[in-house]
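[step 3/7] fold_predict: job queued, chain A
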Amino acid sequence: MMESSPRKDEFKTELRARLVAERQRLNGRQRRRLDQQICAHLLRLLDERDCVRLAAFIAFNGEPDLTPALEALHQAGRRIHLPVVNDNRMHFIRWTPASRMEPNRFGIPEPVEGSECPPERLELVLMPLVAFSAAGTRLGMGAGFYDRTFDFRLEQPDSGPLLVGTAYALQEIDSLPAQSWDVPLDAVVTDRGVRMFRE
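[step 4/7] structure written:
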């Protein structure tokens, strides 16, 4: 069972609110420029990696819009999967630009149908986040879906996909308190480039 201290929980709650608000303050022109830079760095990262089964996300609540990169990767023959949340579990369903999408209970668009790829068979996962640290610690929205889905990485760090956080550089902070169940990032892609935490 996941337990946390009230002090850490309060810190994370305040941090989420501050960074989500800061992310949402980006104006349209700033956001388009930063999103283009993120997509360019992302495509360069994928050019260097011979992986086919990828997972990504659809922008929500001020997250970077990866759609141009996902469309380019689809055209290049990569198989893109998006998270679908059922009850307390996350599944990854195949996506194409023609996929029919509907919002889930959080309001996040999901593919209505498509083939499923087990998390351990994915080769690279682009993960949304609220904050990240220089040590590769990730802070999400607090529901724990990604940590539960990839918890096998805690005992087998070399198994499964490369976990790549995707965010604006303004979301980096000096340090984040890590819990025992937090699955660390292998890398992060921001508007400033790609940073590897673990090869």
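[step 5/7] annotate
The radius of gyration is 16 Å.
Residues 84 and 163 are 17 Å apart (CA to CA).
exit 0
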